[in-house]
Design a protein that fits this description.
Elements lengths: L2 H11 L5 H10 L3 H14 L7 H8 L6 H8 L3 H8 L6 H23 L14 H10 L6 H4 L1
Amino acid sequence: MNKEKEVIVNRYGQSIIGIEVVTELFNKEDSKRLFLESLVFLIQQSKPLITDVDAVIKNSGLKETCTPCVMLRKDVKEYSLRNIINLPDYELVNVFILFLELFKVAYQRRFLLERNNPNKWWYWDLNSKENVDKIFSEHDDTVVKETID
């Protein structure tokens, strides 16, 4: 996942943008599983807890009995999330929605603790154009302005 996509996902975590923006990115991906693997990295960085799962499923709008939800109830560790990624292709949209909500719940808890940590740009205020510009200038990356402005 490139820096632009990471910023977009983290902006979703901060409730700056809606799920439809991230869903559009996911739908454009040729390798949806690779996108999900990158999302697992961001989820683990946010340190999810098994106690997050009820809120995650509720926020996702998915049925508790759908396979990704049943699997998530067992564990939120990286290994378990990678197993969920291996579900059949027809489950990947549900996996994406569930993972995005898991990220958001865990991220928001960490955001309260780490907000504006100078060493962790993903916890900066990503609604600030100045902060977003700084992220891309320091990482020698480019940004598509329409997604950030």
